[in-house]
């Protein structure tokens, strides 16, 4: 169907595109955020949110609210919307939608494995998992002692199985290993997703490859920054970078040898799209980097809605909603802990 | 009040006169005042705090309280629904309820219910666990039993084999085995329990992988779905027994069980203990059951108590919430002693509002009364029509297109007659009309009962438009009589047909041999036309011409209404440069055609009207020849054509020029007026501010106005032709309807009749009935309805209707209770 999306797209996916665009218009606006930021208590936040699309999910909550309840209910809405779309989707859109959840699956696997390593209760961990990344046997992850067992017992049944091929070792699990596992998995996942999108072709490929490339680059930067000062070797570090994106391959070589944040900055500023991100930060600062990246991502995701007849809107919508939930969580936490001065630190306006 | 005297009130012609009023209410009586005003329901409050977010407003806490109470009520309702108790709708004598009291009561009720539920849930959980245990005991018992039996059988078999082939080696080997066994023996343990059926496969797989196959799993589905103790839902489950060896395997398996939500239950190995456990379990189940039943009884009595007052409470809460919402729209005075309200109300309601304010002051023992005053404003007031249950539906038809501008001529009045009539022209069959009439009559007779209960989506729509439908059916009986069709069969209702056969050779199928023997058939179409060869040409010509007459008449009505609008709003430009040329243009072409049609009908001339109309444009100076209907026709046509040609630039050019001139004049005197208005009303800074900004936005752009007028003119000129043609749908649909019903009658009913077979006849009648109901009564009604709707919205209303007003939405308790659920 390359290049002829306008002709054929609506046969199968027109309805869902309409749905997702409708969902998008339910995202909170800057005016909403302004109002939310002025809230004094969590009840105020609830009252404000009941006037939005979140209304039906929050209105039956008894009054002493917690941040977790708000976040939980908001996530529930996202999950229900996702499920609705999933039910209606046909191939290859359904496959595409599944891909969106793999990231959460990886996070959940890592969460449970780390949790069991620190001897937390499995049920407590399960509650913390993102509902989009749930799979049947997720709880039995707790049984595994090392990667090989993890793979053989549980993950072989999940869509994550192919990504594991690179990280099967018999080493016992520890924090470092798990983090490496997460990044290896993510790398494999992103590359797979990238290939899948390329295969879909047309506007989907164009937009999604762009978004995924950004994601890959962001991960590369984060890996670099997080691994500074750890015992991770340069080669190992380089192995964790995804093999696509704007930074691939020369940027990766530079990032691999970085020893502090300013070197990262130097490497990144050679790429015009990232120059603007780093231009916002003062030298030696890495705290605000996350926010800057999120802002850039939101900008790119919003742009995805400017084109029609492609799957990027689904990805963009899910990501935007997740960003919105992160925002809500931050705002509620600030309100709950009386840190209202910091409200604006981490909130990324979507519109 | 008004309209007293000889004439009926003309309320619907134009919307009610509105005024912007300001009320200053002392804060202590504000709640009661609003409650009285809500009962009255004739005041639409303006939001004076639009810039404040909901929780910054004065009464945010009260609204939060109401929201909390509403949530509690929803919880109670949910509980009632779960228990199958319907809230009684009996209107009890309401004891004076205070909001604070209610809040306490609701809190208590909720707490009590939650406690009762928690208790019964705990009991229920134990009960379900026991039930599951029971299942495990039974099923697992079966496993062991069958296993034992087969083991015994095997042993016997092997013993038999042993005795049969008592070779030299075999006892030795056997002994060896026997001797090695105890030394190597590992402890084989087992775990039994229940696992949800859908997870059973994955469960088995994981078990297998985790123990590397060193386990043995037996599963057996439980026949009936089991209530899961944790979630309380009914789930299909499997009983499983898994055997394993070693402690490590055990911990693994336990973890897996936990992960899969498999409930484990201890299973005694000995048969005697099993029996004992089974007995114990069933005994405890019985005990629990009675406790649970008692708990349920208690809960039901609480819920019944709630149910009797539920409606009243929820009404009170909704009412309070709406009062506080409205109070939030009022602005607080600087002294914080009184609230200032602004809003729209109909002029006639002023006394009622004053009265309500007065009562509220008295009842709340306030020392200061409320102040009521009328404000001057240039804002467009809302549109308010006082409709009754008959006119509402017709007004809705108009409102669906656009709410009338304030005080603009309301097409709704005319719609009451023209809409059903146009429908009936397309649906002319008095048999079908009677069916429709009877169906709607049922709705109207049962009106009281039906309006109180909840209907389905489609029924709701039918019920809402019942008076429209009944008018439609009455009119279609009338047009059906004119068309002389009863399920497509003609009747000689008004005397004998005027025609008869000249001699015996003439058949039904032809009119050639017919001669007129009596006076013309007095009403409608002569029955003799039906089924004759010239039926279609005759009816087509009749209906086509009729459609044009109706269309031209309705469009003229539209143009005339535009005159009344222009006159009412004192807009002489619109009268002279829009209404007059439009009237001339339409009538010089299509008005003339209508006149020709009538002349042709009266004189029985054979002139070809197509020819006349076409050559009027192509060669107006040519002789008409045989198509001349009256002397001097040629001259008249030339005059009319010239008039039409003149009226086009007349519509196009003067109006924008005059508007420009007017604007320039006004602009010179602008500063004076602006100053005056600010002097006049100090208190409405906001309003004057809006005025200013409004005046600012009124920048006169000549090119824009001219283009607008150009579009308008082109639309009207082309529209005159296309709209007239559009009215031909009246003919087309009427033709389709009569042909369809004729087909069903002849090809189904008469054909079946012809077989002289009862079975075929019954089948035929059934098919006929369903086709009539499904196709003619439902689908045709819908399509004729839609076409009538279109003719009103497009062809009629575009001649005069602006429809850019907004509806009057008063603060009224009656509306609130309708709104929710």
Describe the structure.
The complex is a heterodimer of chains A (351) and B (821). Chain A is mainly α. Chain A has helices at 5-12, 14-24, 30-37, 42-50, 55-58, 67-88, 93-117, 122-128, 147-153, 175-200, 202-227, 234-240, 250-256, 261-268, 272-279, 289-304, 312-336, 343-346. Chain A starts with a helix and ends in a 5-residue tail after the last helix. The mean pLDDT of chain A is 85. Chain B has 821 residues and is of the alpha+beta class. Chain B has helices spanning 30-40, 60-83, 99-164, 169-184, 197-210, 247-259, 271-329, 350-363, 389-401, 412-426, 430-445, 447-452, 457-464, 466-483, 535-568, 572-603, 609-618, 633-652, 654-668, 670-680, 685-697, 702-726, 729-754, 758-796, 813-819, and strands at 18-26, 44-45, 188-196, 215-221, 226-227, 234-235, 237-245, 263-265, 331-332, 338-346, 371-375, 499-501, 514-516. In chain B, the strands form 4 sheets. In chain B, strands 1, 2, 9, 10 and 11 form a 5-stranded antiparallel sheet that branches. A 4-stranded antiparallel sheet of chain B has the order 4-7-3-8, with helices on both faces. The model of chain B is unreliable at 1-8, 167-183 and 673-697 (pLDDT under 50).
Main interface: chain pair and counts: A-B, 28 and 24 residues
Helical content of chain B stands at: 55-70%
Structural class of chain A: mainly alpha
- Please describe the biggest sheet of chain B, giving its number of strands, its sense, and whether it closes into a barrel: 5 strands, antiparallel
Number of helices of chain A: 18
Find the structural class of chain B using helix and strand composition: alpha+beta
Quick one: how many beta strands of chain B? 13
Net shape of chain A? globular
Gyration radius of chain A (Cα, Å) is: 21 Å
C-alpha Rg of chain B, in Å? 43 Å
| Beta-strand fraction estimate of chain A | under 5%
Low-confidence stretches of chain B: 1-8, 167-183, 673-697
Identify low-pLDDT runs of chain A.
none
Q: What is the H/E order of chain A?
A: HHHHHHHHHHHHHHHHHH
Residue-averaged pLDDT of chain B: 82
Strand content of chain B: 5-15%
Kindly report how far apart the N and C termini of chain B lie.
Answer: 36 Å
Oligomeric status of the shown chains?
A: heterodimer
């Amino acid at each position: 169907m390359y290049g002829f999306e306008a002709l054929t797209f609506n046969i199968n996916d027109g309805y869902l595109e309409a749905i997702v665009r409708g969902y998008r218009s339910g995202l909170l606006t800057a005016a909403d955020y302004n109002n939310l930021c002025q809230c004094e208590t969590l009840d105020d936040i609830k009252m404000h949110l009941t006037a939005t699309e979140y209304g039906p999910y929050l209105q039956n909550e008894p009054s002493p609210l917690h941040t977790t309840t708000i976040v939980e209910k908001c996530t529930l809405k996202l999950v229900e919307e996702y499920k609705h779309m999933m039910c209606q989707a046909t191939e290859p859109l359904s496959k595409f939608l599944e891909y969106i959840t793999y990231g959460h699956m990886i996070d959940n696997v890592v969460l449970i494995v780390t949790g069991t390593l620190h001897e937390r209760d499995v049920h407590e961990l399960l509650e913390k998992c993102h509902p989009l990344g749930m799979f049947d046997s997720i709880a039995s992850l707790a049984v595994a002692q090392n990667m090989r067992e993890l793979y053989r017992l549980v993950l072989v049944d999940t869509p994550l199985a192919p990504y594991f091929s690179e990280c099967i070792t018999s080493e016992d699990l520890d924090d470092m290993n798990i983090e490496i596992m997460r990044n290896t998995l993510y790398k494999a996942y992103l590359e797979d997703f990238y290939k899948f999108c390329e295969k879909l072709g047309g506007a989907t490929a164009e937009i999604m490859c762009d978004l995924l490339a950004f994601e890959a680059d962001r991960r590369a930067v984060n890996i670099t920054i997080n691994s500074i000062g750890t015992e991770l070797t340069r080669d190992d570090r380089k192995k964790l970078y995804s093999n696509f994106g704007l930074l691939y391959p020369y940027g990766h070589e530079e990032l691999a040898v970085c020893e502090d944040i300013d070197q990262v900055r130097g490497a990144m500023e050679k790429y015009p799209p990232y120059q603007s991100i780093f231009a916002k930060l003062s030298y030696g600062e890495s705290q605000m980097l996350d926010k800057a990246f999120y802002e850039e991502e939101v900008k790119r995701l919003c742009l995805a809605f400017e084109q029609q007849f492609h799957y990027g809107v689904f990805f963009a919508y899910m990501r935007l909603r997740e960003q919105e939930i992160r925002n809500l969580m931050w705002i509620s936490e600030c309100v709950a802990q009386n840190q209202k001065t910091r409200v604006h630190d981490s909130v990324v306006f979507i519109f | 009040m008004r309209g007293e005297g000889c004439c009926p009130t003309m309320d619907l012609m134009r919307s009610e006169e509105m005024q912007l009023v300001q009320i200053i209410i002392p804060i202590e009586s504000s709640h009661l005042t609003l409650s009285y005003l809500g009962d009255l329901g004739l005041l639409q409050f303006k939001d004076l705090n639009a810039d404040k977010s909901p929780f910054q407003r004065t009464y945010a806490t009260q609204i939060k309280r109401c929201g909390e109470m509403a949530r509690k009520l929803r919880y109670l309702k949910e509980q009632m629904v779960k228990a199958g108790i319907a809230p009684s709708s009996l209107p009890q004598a309401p004891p004076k309820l205070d909001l604070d009291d209610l809040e306490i009561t609701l809190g208590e009720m909720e707490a009590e219910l939650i406690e009762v539920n928690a208790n019964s849930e705990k009991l229920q959980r134990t009960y379900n666990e026991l039930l599951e245990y029971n299942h495990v005991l039974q099923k697992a018992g079966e496993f062991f039993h069958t296993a034992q039996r087969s083991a015994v059988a095997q042993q016997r078999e092997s013993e038999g084999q042993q005795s049969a082939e008592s070779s030299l080696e075999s006892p030795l080997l056997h002994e060896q085995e026997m001797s090695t066994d105890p030394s190597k023996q590992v402890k084989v343990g087992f775990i039994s329990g229940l696992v949800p059926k859908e997870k059973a496969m994955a469960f088995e797989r994981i078990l297998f992988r985790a123990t590397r196959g060193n386990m043995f799993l037996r599963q057996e589905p439980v026949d009936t779905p089991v209530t899961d103790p944790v979630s309380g839902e009914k789930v299909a489950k499997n009983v499983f027994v898994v055997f394993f060896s070693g402690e490590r395997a055990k911990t693994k398996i336990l973890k897996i069980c936990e992960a899969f939500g498999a409930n484990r239950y201890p299973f005694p190995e000995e048969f005697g203990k099993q029996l004992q456990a089974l007995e114990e379990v069933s005994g405890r189940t019985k005990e629990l059951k009675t406790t649970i039943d008692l708990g349920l009884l208690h809960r039901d009595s609480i819920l019944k108590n709630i149910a009797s007052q539920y409606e009243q409470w929820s009404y009170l809460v909704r009412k309070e919430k709406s009062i506080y919402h409205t109070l939030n729209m009022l602005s607080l005075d600087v002294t914080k002693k009184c609230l200032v309200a602004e809003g729209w109300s109909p002029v006639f309601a002023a006394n009622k509002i004053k009265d309500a304010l007065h009562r509220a002051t008295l009842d709340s023992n306030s020392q200061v009364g409320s102040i009521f005053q009328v404000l001057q404003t240039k804002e467009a007031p809302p549109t308010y029509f006082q409709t009754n249950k008959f006119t509402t539906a017709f007004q809705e038809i108009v409102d669906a297109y656009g709410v009338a501008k304030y005080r603009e001529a309301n097409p709704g009045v005319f719609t009451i007659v023209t809409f059903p009539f146009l429908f009936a022209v397309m649906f002319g069959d008095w048999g079908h009309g009677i069916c429709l009439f009877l169906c709607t009559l049922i709705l109207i007779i049962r009106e009281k009962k039906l309006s109180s209960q909840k209907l389905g989506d489609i029924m709701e729509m039918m019920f809402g438009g019942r008076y429209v439908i009944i008018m439609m059916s009455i009119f279609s009986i009338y047009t059906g009589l004119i068309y002389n069709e009863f399920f497509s069969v003609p009747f000689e209702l008004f005397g004998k047909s005027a025609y008869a056969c000249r001699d015996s050779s003439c058949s039904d199928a032809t009119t050639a041999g017919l001669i007129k023997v009596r006076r013309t058939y007095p009403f409608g179409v002569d029955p003799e036309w039906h089924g004759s060869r010239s039926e279609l040409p005759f009816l087509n010509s009749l209906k086509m011409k009729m459609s044009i007459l109706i269309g031209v008449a309705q469009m003229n009505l539209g143009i005339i209404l535009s005159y009344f609008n222009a006159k009412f709003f004192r807009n002489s430009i619109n009268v002279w440069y829009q209404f007059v040329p439009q009237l001339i243009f339409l009538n010089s072409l299509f008005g003339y055609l209508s006149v020709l049609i009538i002349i042709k009908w009266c004189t029985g001339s054979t002139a070809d009207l197509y020819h006349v109309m076409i050559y009027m444009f192509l060669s107006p100076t040519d002789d008409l020849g045989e198509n001349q209907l009256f002397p001097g026709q040629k001259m008249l046509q030339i005059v009319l054509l010239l008039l039409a040609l003149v009226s086009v630039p007349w519509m196009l050019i003067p109006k924008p020029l005059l508007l420009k001139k007017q604007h320039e004049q006004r602009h010179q005197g602008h500063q004076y007026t602006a100053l005056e208005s600010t002097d006049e009303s100090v208190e409405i800074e906001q309003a004057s501010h809006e005025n200013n900004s409004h005046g600012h936005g009124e920048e006169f752009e000549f090119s824009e106005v001219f283009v607008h007028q150009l579009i308008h003119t082109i639309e009207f000129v082309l529209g005159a032709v296309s709209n007239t043609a559009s009215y031909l749908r009246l003919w087309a649909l009427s033709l389709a309807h009569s042909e369809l019903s004729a087909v069903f009658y002849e090809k189904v009913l008469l054909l079946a009749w012809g077989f002289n077979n009862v079975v075929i006849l019954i089948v035929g009648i059934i098919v006929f009935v369903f086709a009539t109901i499904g196709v003619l009564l439902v689908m045709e009604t819908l399509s004729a309805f839609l076409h009538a709707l279109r003719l009103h919205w497009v062809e009629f209303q575009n001649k005069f209707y602006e429809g850019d007003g907004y509806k009057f939405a008063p603060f009224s308790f009656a509306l609130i209770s309708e709104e929710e659920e």
